[in-house]
Amino acid sequence: MGNAFVVSLAFADLLVVCYPYPLVLHAMLHAGWLPDEMECKVSGFLMGASVIGSIFNITAIAINRYCFICQANTYEKIYGRVGTLTLLTLVWVLTALAILPNLSLGSLTYDPRVYSCTFSQTASAGYTIAVVTVHFLLPIGVVTFCYLRIWVLVLRVRRRVSTDVRPRLRPSELRHFLTMFVVFVLFAVCWAPLNLIGLAVAVDPPRIAPLVPDWLFVVSYFMAYFNSCLNAVVYGLLNQNFRREYRRILLSLCKPHLFLQETSKGGTERSNKQSPGNNNDDDQPKANTI
């Protein structure tokens, strides 16, 4: 059930693709274009939901991995079907609660520097500090704690310091942990500059905001939102299953006839394996003991 949070993270990344990014591209290609108020609010809201949903899902994944590896008994109690769905719902409820104040504060405005409707760091100093704390500092602290505990346990097991600790450290689970750890590190690196600028501006918006160079804000902004594109790359580089599916997708796009032949062959092989004639009494006990 832990993969449900990965799917939720992918959904959060895709939110910006369905509406905000096409508007940004349109604005870049048509200089001087301005969205109407409704377009601006919808675009800014979806972009904010994607960002906050991403970090909340990354936090949920870190807690899930921590419980799975370090607290096996707790994991069994919490992460059943009902528990996982409840936690997923909580992630998105918290995301909505974090983004909704933007609508009443009017902090979602069009910024010509980045060709998009986004959160204005000067709209409310208090809300800016709250956003940086809830969206960045607090989740980063929780995720860092979880991954540090996992790393400590992994090193202890590798060095055989403790024989009474028997965490679930199958190679597949360790690779999954490393993948999500890289996702977390990239998120922290990509989002740190923009959040640090937000904290600095929140101290005294009228005085500090004009001191922030436009180029620095633009670079930090696009660096932050480019993070959503990196997750798919990380999955492809570090996960064999994703690499295999990526190859299948590329094959289906470039050479559809070969893809259809491979799919047909795979279906035939599965049918042969599942046919009653291929299962004998000698094979069945072996399958049960693996």
TrEMBL record:
Where primarily located? membrane
Annotated region (Disordered), positions in chain: 264-290
Q: Where in the cell is it found?
A: Cell membrane
| Keyword Cell membrane recorded | yes
The transmembrane segments are: 42-63, 84-105, 125-155, 176-203, 215-238
Pfam families, sorted: 7tm_1 (PF00001)
Which residue intervals define the domain G-protein coupled receptors family 1 profile in the entry? 1-235
Q: Which GO terms describe its cellular component?
A: plasma membrane
- Keyword list, A-Z: Cell membrane, G-protein coupled receptor, Membrane, Receptor, Transducer, Transmembrane, Transmembrane helix
Q: Which domain of life is it from?
A: Eukaryota
Q: How does it sit in the membrane?
A: Multi-pass membrane protein
Q: Its Gene Ontology molecular function terms?
A: melatonin receptor activity
Q: Which InterPro entries match?
A: GPCR_Rhodpsn (IPR000276), GPCR_Rhodpsn_7TM (IPR017452), Melatonin_rcpt (IPR000025)
* Keyword Lipid metabolism found: no
Q: Family per UniProt? A: Belongs to the G-protein coupled receptor 1 family.
What the protein does comes down to: High affinity receptor for melatonin. The activity of this receptor is mediated by pertussis toxin sensitive G proteins that inhibits adenylate cyclase activity.
Which PANTHER family does the record cross-reference, listed alphabetically? B2 BRADYKININ RECEPTOR/ANGIOTENSIN II RECEPTOR, MELATONIN RECEPTOR TYPE 1B
Q: What is this protein called?
A: G-protein coupled receptors family 1 profile domain-containing protein
**The species this protein was found in:** Danionella cerebrum
